[in-house]
Give the backbone structure.
Amino acid sequence: AAAQRVLSPWNRPEQAHAEVLAVDDEDADLAARAVADPRTHWWWDTGPLPPQVQLTGSEPPPSDVPDDVARGWEPYSQRPHGYFVTATRFGATSGVHAAVAHYVGDWAPQYPLTEHDIEVAGDARIVHVTSAADWHRLATAFPAPVRGSDAAGVVNEISPDWRLVAEQWDGVHLTFGGLLCALFVPVTSEAGTTTLWTWESERTLWLHRPFEAERQGRVIVDELHGDHHLLLECDRPSGTPDRAWLVARKEPFWRRWFQRRR
């Protein structure tokens, strides 16, 4: 999330990209060893989805699935109107938690936030995006032309038409490895150029609801403390918070992931 904040096309991308491309052999070796480590294999896991979590704010929720009315900004934003996403839960947090904590993305939620724990049916039809090539295949198989395809300096001529995707798939899962490998990476073929650039974390965009269980969970309140953005988790069995503790965002949001280790 911190890396995406820095690399965002809206946030001095030229300088950030130059710094990333200037990494030395030590950093490249560290990245190669991380990818080869067996403990990171889950980054590209394309099996059944583990327990999911959805975050909602106090604002009215969007519709759950794409409606029948095409919106002009959908191909540009690479998501349907009223999009509904979940993320894989990792203990008390998820990629969506991290994105919110780092102010990454277009969603500026009204606090408090509520977690919803979701169990996905084993027979759910999920297409997994593990690379820029996967995203290109999805977009070109169900194409929606993009107007203003070079907005924000990102060349993206084709995005998925979500109504067509929904005819074959229940959800589109961007794996954590896919996030690392596909974000801001253009792929060009005879059909045109695609660039995934608006998805802020590992997540699944749902086009149907193949869920076995949905439960309302914890409530998160937002507080600012100096240079730290804290997400506080609150138990409220009777509707009133009785305890809170830090669950995310222990470092200043301006710290960059590519800073050399001292």
Notes: The longest strand covers residues 211-225.
